[in-house]
Amino acid sequence: MITMEYDDISVGSLADAMEAAAIVVDRHDGETIYLKEGVSFPLWLNLERGKKRIVLHTYCEFKEYAATDRIPELIDELNGEYLMVQFSTKQVDGQLRLDGTYVMFTGFGIVVPQLVHATRRFAEIFRCGFSDHDPYGLFFD
Question: What pLDDT does residue 30 have?
Fold first, then answer.
């Protein structure tokens, strides 16, 4: 099994692991990698070394005239059904969006295939979450 010791975890080594798994990445400044192909939905992988964790994050903007009175119910449904992704809402530049987050702790290192699988699963759950729970287009285009 391929593992990465804590001291060996870096943005570069994480990007290399993703690329070896046929995931196309953009290496961003600092501690963030954008994964854009090879996953069900684009996402960011952020290495937070000081907190000894990796945070997976993505979002989808609600449509302008979304049924905002039903959004709390949607978030409760998503968080109740999909335990891996923490769903929430956030207002950014006047646009309401659905956020998804997952945290993996790295203090003892990581198992690389597990990280790749968790990353792919996170993207798939997020995509299914908003598409399966909006069959009538009340929230998303």
Answer: 82
